[in-house]
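Consider the tokenized backbone below.
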């Protein structure tokens, strides 16, 4: 224990110390310093002051401010998955898809008008939402030839639909049951139980490679429009008519907010879900900052200031983790490469040894959607896989005013197709430039190969001379990043004997 010398002033003279430690009483025993509080402690939140272990008023205030802020930051980061799927639902509802039988479809493929995390321009998207609280058990009558997913309102994987699902791409009827459902379950369905009242329905139709694009695109749309049915089981004999909403070229924002509104929307979200929605720890953390089911969210001026600050810190943390990941599992080719992957170690559960891997979970849900093991397969020729690059070969942030080159060696190992798509560092959605589809790949007409079968792709505000077919436009004053998609990734991609070059600064 530290020795605190005590002095008594007598007639202006400093006397010898009267005590070298706490008085020794009849029952005194040695007390380890590690279980006591000093009179003062210097910390990152200031000097903490005590009277014999009891915090002084200013210390109490500082500690409670810190606790509220730190808990709010953790609520922000840990709630990114739930808020991402909630804003997907909100964005889809904004264009009219507010019931289970209303489906958003990109009839002319997705261009950069849609604000949707890392959407691609190469497949036919169709998405919807189930409301099991309102509708009860709900049927999805799926067409053949679809690749899809059901994710719940915590963005947890439920099941695959179509090619990777139990119907094996032949189509069939799925029955989705509400949380805790105890009623009868009819036969003849692929039955899926949900832990949440809301369920995101994601579907993707591939384009027939044997057809020219002008025929393949409407054929993929027709397959969905003519055969997909979604309806409450209670209305199976009187099904509501399907309504397909073409959102190609339309503004639709599905991106979670980065400011105080995050907490407002989180409060609204938990009102619609079971009390057990996110577990006891998450529920307790939210309650500690004023977010509770069945109670109003009405922070006072002090707490609103803290929450605003916490959202700014959480936003910075999510972006640092996304663009400069420190978990080795997110590094596609190790520390000497700028290429990363969305699923750390290809694990779609974001766990290790029975515990969540916090940074990889934040990285994925801040920038990406669609949680399914099929999105990170290691079986040659199956599913899809991705490489992502946010920095140049020197580890510097990409600058839209400069010219860069990406070299892809011969024979990109994709059985179906490969594509490079540009994204906006702010929205993590397709970069909005003069090019409607900011993508180049094996399906792009006019892309040029080098004599050895390799490709050079250029990123610049203006096309380098002679490279217009291999050019993606950038914007001075904006940053950008890319995703390299491999559909049907083949063994050289999986074992990394084929790998893309780094993004090189040309000028």
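A designed sequence for it:
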């Amino acid at each position: 224990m530290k020795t605190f010398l005590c002095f008594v002033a007598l007639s202006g003279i400093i006397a010898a110390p009267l005590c070298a430690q706490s008085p020794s009483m009849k029952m005194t025993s040695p007390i380890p310093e590690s279980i006591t509080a000093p009179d003062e402690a210097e910390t990152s939140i200031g000097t903490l002051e005590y009277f014999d272990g009891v915090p002084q008023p200013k210390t109490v205030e500082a500690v409670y401010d810190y606790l509220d802020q730190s808990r709010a930051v953790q609520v922000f980061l840990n709630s990114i998955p739930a808020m991402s799927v909630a804003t997907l639902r909100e964005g889809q509802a904004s264009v009219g898809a507010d019931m289970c039988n209303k489906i958003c479809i990109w009839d002319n493929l997705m261009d950069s008008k849609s604000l949707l995390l890392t959407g691609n321009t190469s497949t036919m998207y169709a998405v919807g939402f189930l409301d099991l609280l309102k509708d009860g058990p709900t049927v999805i009558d799926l067409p053949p030839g679809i690749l899809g997913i059901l994710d719940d309102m915590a963005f947890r994987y439920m099941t695959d639909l179509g090619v990777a699902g139990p119907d094996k791409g032949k189509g069939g009827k799925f029955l989705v049951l509400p949380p805790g459902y105890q009623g009868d379950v009819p036969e003849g369905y692929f039955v899926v139980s949900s832990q949440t009242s809301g369920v995101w329905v994601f579907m993707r139709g591939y384009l027939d490679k044997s057809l020219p694009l002008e025929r393949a695109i409407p054929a993929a749309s027709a397959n969905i429009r003519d055969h997909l049915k979604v309806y409450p089981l209670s209305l199976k004999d009187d099904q509501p008519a399907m309504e397909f909403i073409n959102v190609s070229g339309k503004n639709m924002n599905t991106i979670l907010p980065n400011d105080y509104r995050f907490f407002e929307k989180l409060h609204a979200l938990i009102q619609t879900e079971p009390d057990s929605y996110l577990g006891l720890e998450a529920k307790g953390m939210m309650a500690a900052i004023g977010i509770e089911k069945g109670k109003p969210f009405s922070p006072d001026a002090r707490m609103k200031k803290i929450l605003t600050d916490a959202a700014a810190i959480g936003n910075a943390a999510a972006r640092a983790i996304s663009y400069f990941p420190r978990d080795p599992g997110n590094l596609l080719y190790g520390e000497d490469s700028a290429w990363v992957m969305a699923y750390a170690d290809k694990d779609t559960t974001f766990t290790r040894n029975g515990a969540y891997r916090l940074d990889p979970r934040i990285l994925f849900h801040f920038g990406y959607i669609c949680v399914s093991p099929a999105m990170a397969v290691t079986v040659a020729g199956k599913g899809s896989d991705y490489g992502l690059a946010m920095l140049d070969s020197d580890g510097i942030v990409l600058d839209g005013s400069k010219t860069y080159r990406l070299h892809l060696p011969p024979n990109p190992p994709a059985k179906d197709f490969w594509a490079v798509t540009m994204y906006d560092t702010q929205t993590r959605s397709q970069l909005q430039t003069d090019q409607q589809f900011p993508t180049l790949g094996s399906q792009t007409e006019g892309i040029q190969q080098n004599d050895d079968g390799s490709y050079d792709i250029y990123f610049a505000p203006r096309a380098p001379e002679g490279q217009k077919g291999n050019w993606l436009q950038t914007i001075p004053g904006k940053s950008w990043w890319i995703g390299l998609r491999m559909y049907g990734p083949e063994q050289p991609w999986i074992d990394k004997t084929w790998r893309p070059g780094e993004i090189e600064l040309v000028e």
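The two ends are 63 Å apart (CA to CA).
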